[in-house]
Amino acid sequence: MGGAINLITRKPLRELEGDVRIGFATGGERKVAANVGSNQGLWYFQAGASYLDADSFALGRGFEDHKASPTDSGDRRQNAYRTDRKASLKIGFTPNASDEYALAYSKQEGEKGNPVYTGKSTQGSMRYWQWPFWDKESLYFLSSTELSDALTLKTRLYTDKYQNGLDMFTDARYSQRTERSLYDDKTYGAAVELVSRHLEDHELHLALHYKDDRHEEDDKNFRDVTRSVAIEDIIELSSAWRLRLGLSHEEREAREAHLLPTGTTRATNGLIELAHDLTPDIEAYASLARKSRLPTIKDRYSYRMGRAIPNPDLDPEVARHGEIGLRGTPWRGASGEASLFYSHIRDYIQTAVVPSTACGGQTCDQAQNISRARHRGLELSLQQTLGEQWRLGAAYTYLDRDNMSDRQIPLTDSPRHKLFAHATWSPLQQWAFQTSLDAEEGRQVSSGNATASGYRHVGSFATVNAKGVWKPRPDLALEAGVNNLGDKHYELADGYPMPGRTLFTNATFSF
Predict the structure, then answer these.
(1) Which residues are 507's β-sheet partners?
(2) SS3 199
(3) Nearest CA to 352 among 365, 339, 337, 361?
(4) Residues whose CB is less than 8 angstroms from the CB of residue 387 and which lie 6 or more positions away in sequence, other chains included
(5) What SS3 string covers 249-279?
C-alpha cells in the first residue's frame, strides 16, 4: 500500500516544460492528461492531472455468455464503465549537488461497474455490483543527504488513504440496491536507509522499515503493524568479480481483527549473489536466497464479498530460491538477459475451493497454506537495434509449478508459457510504426463447479497490437492504432472476458 517514489534526475533546465495529451478509444473511452515541471536550480516542481471516462469495452469474437439468464448478449461488455480522475504535485529542494528533499502529493478519485460473471459455474448467486467511489490519497516525504563523502542517509515518510463503496443490486437493471459495503483503509509508514562506503571495496546498506496498515470494513476494524531490518553488503572482490550478501528480519503483528484471532508472524531472509564479468559487456551471475512472504490482512481475514471464509492461522510462505544467468550486450546493437531459476516453497499461499455453505452454495474460497510447492523455469529477453530504422525485442518466460503435497490441487493464475515481442519501424524521422504480440498458454484458474475438480485451464491466446505515430512538427505527435487486432476472445479468470478489438487515437503536444 505504501511505496517509494524515485527522486528525479536533476537537469540544468530553468524553464517550464510539459505536455498535454488527449485520446479516444472503442467503448466510448475518452481521456485527457497534462504534465508540467520546472527546475529552478535550488528547487524544482512537477505537477500533473488526468481524466479518463469509458462506457464499456468491446467483446472478442466468439464470446458467449453461459448464464441461464445472459447479461452480455451484444458486442459490448455490460456494467464495465469506469471513470478516473488523478492529480499530483511534487516539490523538491536541492541545496547542493548531492542532497535532495522532496514532498509529493497525489489524489485519485474513481468509480466503476463490475461486469457480471459469464462462465458455467452455478455456485453462489450472481453479483450485480457497482463502485460509486474508489478513491486514494497519498502524501510522501523523501530525502537523500550526504553526511560525508562515505556516508549517505535516505529517509521516506508516507501516508496512504484508500476508500471505496460497493453497491449491491438485485439484478442487471441496477435499480434496486440491497446493500452498500464501505471500505476505509489507511497506511502510515517510515523507512530509513544508511549507505556506507567507509570500507574499501565495500558498499554497506542498513535499512529499517515500519508500516501500520489499518482496514475498516462495515464497522469491522483490522490492523497490522509490520517492522523489518535489513543489511546488505556489495563487495568488489576484483575488477571482474562482485559479491552481494544480504540478511533481513521482518515481523507482522495483527493488533486488531474484529473478533477473529490475532498474533504475530516472523520471517528471516538471506541472499548471496556472485557476479563475474565474462567480457567487458557480459556479466554472469549466480544467487542463492531464502525469501518469505508474510500473509496480508486480505489473505487472513477477508470474506471476499461473501465468496470466501477467513483463515487467521496462515503461515508465511518461505522459498529457497536459486538462479543463474547472463546479462549484457552479446553483440553490437543488442542487449539481453537469460536466466534459469528454481524455487522450493514451503507453506505456499493459494486460494483453495473448500466445502462450505457459508457463501451461498456448496463451496467457498479460502486462502490456505498448501504446504510444499516447486517452481522452476527460465527467462529470456533480447532487444536489438538495426540501423536507425528498426528496433526489435522479445521476452519469453517458461514456468513449471507443482503442488508437491497434493497434485490434485493445481497451482493457479499463472501461465506455463508467456511471450511478449515488439517491433518498431521508423522509415522517416516524422513516422514510426509499432507492433507487438502478447501470447500465453497453460494458465489454470479456480472455477467453482464448472469442472469436477473446481479448476480449469483457460484457453491459450495470442493478441496482436499495432499503431502508427506521425510527428508533423517536433512538439506534436498524432497516433492511431488497434489493440487485439484479431478480435480474440480470451480470459485470465474464469467467466471474465478480456477486451476484444479496440481502436484508439491519441494526440500529444509538448512544450
Answers:
(1) 22, 478
(2) coil
(3) 365
(4) none
(5) EEEEEEEEECCCCCCEEEEEEEEEEEEEEEE
Helices (H) and strands (E) in the chain, counts: 1, 28
Q: Write the Ramachandran bin of 80: left for phi over 0, alpha for psi from -120 to 50, otherwise beta.
A: alpha
> By C-alpha distance, which of 359, 310, 451 is closest to 124?
359
pLDDT of res. 410: 87
φ, ψ (nearest 5 deg) of residue 299: -55, -45
d(CA 134, CA 262): 29
Reading phi first (left if > 0) and then psi (alpha if -120 to 50, else beta), residue 442 is in left
Q: Please tell me the number of Cα atoms within 13 Å of 81 on its side-chain side.
A: 10
Residue among 286, 285, 289 at smallest CA distance from 248: 289
Residue from 427, 506, 504, 492 nearest 460 by CA = 492
Amino acid letter, residue 326: L
What is the gyration radius of the CA atoms in the chain, in angstroms? 25
The Cβ-side half-sphere exposure at 496, using a 13 Å CA radius, reads 13
Model pLDDT for residues 216-272, shown as the tens digit of each residue: 988 899 999 999 999 999 999 999 999 999 999 999 999 999 989 999 999 999 999
Residue with cell 448467486: 125
Cell numbers for 44: 524544482
Coil vs helix vs strand at 40: coil
CA distances 369 to 256, 416, 489, Å, are 22, 22, 33
pLDDT in tens, 123-148: 767 889 999 999 999 999 999 999 99
Q: What is the pTM of this model?
A: 0.87
> Residues with Cβ < 8 Å from 459, sequence gap 6 or more?
490, 491
Question: DSSP assignment of 58-99, as one string?
Answer: BBPBT----SSS-S--SSB-TT--EEEEEEEEEEEE--SSS-
From the list 468, 473, 456, the residue with the least C-alpha distance to 506 is: 468
Q: How would you classify residue 472: left for phi > 0, otherwise alpha for psi between -120 and 50, otherwise beta?
A: alpha
For residues 167 and 180, the answer to whether their CB atoms sit within 8 Å is: yes
How far is the CA of 224 from the CAs of 31, 58, 65, 66, 190, in angstroms? Answer: 37, 40, 41, 41, 15
Q: Give the residues across from 322 on adjacent strands.
A: 288, 342
11-15, 52-56, 67-71, 154-158: which has the minimum mean pLDDT?
11-15
Tell me if residue 427 falls in helix, strand or coil: coil
> Which residue is it, cell 497506511?
187
